[in-house]
Design a protein that fits this description.
146 residues; alpha/beta; Rossmann fold; 5-stranded parallel sheet; 36% helix; globular
Length: 146
């Protein structure tokens, strides 16, 4: 059996469904987790969220040793965290950077991702249901590598 897929969510995503629903919709993080679990097929899923940069980095380090792929929504850390970028640089398997909103249609401060240059793929603007697409894509990437 393959190692699990890790879905890692950054700051403020615990407020999904309440926070700026005109941008992020009304889907809660619990519902996002359910979408991901329904999409992971035969893979085990490790689903996490933190508002702490240090905790996100620890989870990436854990994934380096014990996962088949990472789906990460770094949220605001996308644009500010060289530490998360550096941790992901060490990851030898597929990485999908994911954003609920289309960051390229938003204000200019959201246009320069530090994560995109090292991600295997980037998905943005598909809303919360896009997590399911991203997990299925990651699953296919892992299977194709095997």
């Amino acid at each position: 059996m393959s190692k699990p897929i890790h879905v890692i969510n950054g700051p403020n995503l615990n407020r999904l469904g309440l926070r700026e629903p005109e941008i992020y919709g009304y889907t809660t993080l619990a519902e996002v987790e359910s979408i991901c679990r329904d999409s992971c097929g035969e893979f085990e899923l490790v689903f996490r969220q933190s508002n702490s940069e240090a905790e996100l980095i620890e989870w990436i380090h854990e994934a380096i040793d014990n996962s088949s792929g990472i789906l990460i929504n770094p949220a605001a850390f996308t644009f500010t965290s060289m530490a998360i970028m550096d941790a992901l640089k060490m990851y030898p398997f597929p990485i999908i950077e994911f954003h609920i909103s289309n960051i390229h249609k938003r204000e200019p401060m959201y246009h320069n991702s530090l994560i995109s240059p090292i991600a295997t793929a980037v998905m943005a603007g598909t809303g919360a249901p896009g997590y399911g697409y991203a997990v299925r894509l990651l699953r296919d990437m892992i299977t194709d590598r095997a």
